[in-house]
Write a structure and sequence with these properties.
With 67 residues, the chain is of the alpha+beta class. It has one domain. 22% of the residues lie in helices and 25% in strands. It has two helices and three strands, in the order βαββα.
Length: 67
Amino acid sequence: MKLYQCHKQVHGKPMNRGFYNKFKGWETPEDEDPTDEGYMVVYNMGTNKEYISWSPKDIFEDGYTVK
């Protein structure tokens, strides 16, 4: 695989994995810890390319800083 570096701006909100799954209308799989700290991440907020995902806290905070 190729190595990529991120240059995007995103919107993020602290949210544990379980709450994110509830927000999406999903059941938390048995092999996931619903108390895992993380962020709901919104890419391209307010556009027709908006995309929402979840990222573990350490991964998000290592890659993004508040603007």
